[in-house]
# Entry
Amino acid sequence: MAEIQLGVIEARFADMIWEREPVISSELVKLAAEAFTWKRTTTHTVLKRLCEKGLFENNKGTVTSLISRSQFYSMQSRRFVEDAFDGSLPAFIAAFTQNRRLTSEEADKIRKMIEEAVI
# Structure
């Protein structure tokens, strides 16, 4: 799948859609006016851009996702580890825990995820 990049405001708007989907575009216009003080045209422009990026579909005014929120952020996380740590998950975890100790609950959850992911 092609890499999808979002700006901060686009990501907040996408989160707004994911939280409410399926949602009608007129409702998004109201929500974006409240949250971002956008005009109707701005909302439709940003929505169109997110649809063109392959995140959402606007079918006769009803907006639904083509990629779930968890799928999107999973792709972003993988890209971050690839870019910042040469794809090394251990290097990422080492950096993440350098100035912070894991709780025993966090460590147990990580162990379980590793056990489930091992081929």
The chain has a mean pLDDT of 92. The domain at 8-69 is CATH 1.10.10.10 (Arc Repressor Mutant, subunit A).
